[in-house]
Design goal:
Number of strands: 5
Number of helices: 10
Helix content: 25-40%
Strand content: 5-15%
Radius of gyration: 19 Å
Shape: globular
Structural class: alpha/beta
Distance between the termini: 52 Å
Strand order of the largest sheet: 1-5-4-3-2
Largest sheet: 5 strands, mixed
């Protein structure tokens, strides 16, 4: 007798009522877990004021950890999507679209590396863990290139242009890091430290004198002391960590003042 398979997920594109309710809970939990590290009068933003949005995590927000924490979900709402659905006007859509393509190319390159590495190990997870994916705009130095056993990114993403800021009252810059399980963090630029490109971008925004909100989308620490001293344009710092599938909605709720981030350093981390 053949048993009938029962699926824990859905076989249709329509979310179930349970999914919708769980999504609402995930949105509230994500906002409650965020930690506001700095705010010099810039937050909350006004929904009517145009915003320039940059950084690897803007359109490719990291929802959670890798390894056993890398669960399959129907959809992850990026910060870009969350802001747009909240009704915000984004002046830098061409920058985000350009990065989306670079990200897609980088993922395809990474997949080829993983498949090749898997041919030479007994446990395929070892190939996955030894070659963590890195956001394509993070500059990978020679040490990192060797550590990752053969791949790195020379494509840094296009520069921020003054036209990307045209009409914007503020900028949001999202620094993202993949962290979870395996050989996923390094004490070097592009990981624990900001990448060269990230520093260039933030210093450019500083030269343009545009008030900036820096968002940290990472499951581990990122050193930002130096950039806060150099880029006085950074008026707010929000640590969203790995906020799950409702990431963009939760971040928009905080940025526009619908929700106050209730994370506290002494008890949350």
């Amino acid at each position: 007798m053949i048993q009938q398979w029962k699926h824990s997920g859905r076989l249709t594109d329509t979310p179930s009522s349970k999914e919708i309710e769980h999504g609402k809970l995930a949105r509230r939990a994500a906002a409650e877990g965020c930690v506001l590290l700095k705010n010099e009068g810039i937050l909350p933003l006004r929904i009517s004021d145009p915003i320039a949005l940059f950084g690897g995590g803007a359109g490719k927000t990291i929802k959670g950890g890798i390894g056993s924490g890398d669960v399959n979900n129907r959809k992850t709402v990026s910060i870009y999507e969350g802001l747009m659905e909240a009704g915000a006007t984004i002046t830098s859509t061409s920058w985000i679209e350009d990065y989306q393509k670079r990200y897609s190319d980088a993922r395809n390159t990474w997949k080829e590396v993983i498949l090749e590495a898997a041919r030479h190990v007994e446990n395929h997870f070892d190939a996955y863990a030894a070659h963590p994916f890195m956001m394509p705009e993070n500059r990978v130095n020679e040490a990192c290139f060797n550590y990752a056993s053969g791949y790195g990114y020379s494509d840094q993403g296009r520069d921020i242009l003054e036209s990307d800021l045209s009409g914007a009252s503020a900028a949001i810059y999202v620094v993202s890091r993949i962290a979870g399980e395996g050989k996923d963090r390094r004490l070097q630029e592009g990981d624990y430290y900001l990448s060269g490109k990230e520093k260039e971008d933030l210093l450019f925004l500083n030269r343009c004198h545009i008030p900036t909100v820096l968002i940290i989308n990472a499951g581990g620490p990122v050193e930002i002391t130096d950039i806060l001293e150099e880029a006085v344009c950074i008026k707010a710092v929000l640590n969203v960590s790995q906020p799950g599938q409702e990431a963009g909605h939760a971040v928009a709720d905080i940025l526009f003042g619908k929700v106050s981030p209730s994370g506290r350093l002494t008890s949350t981390w």
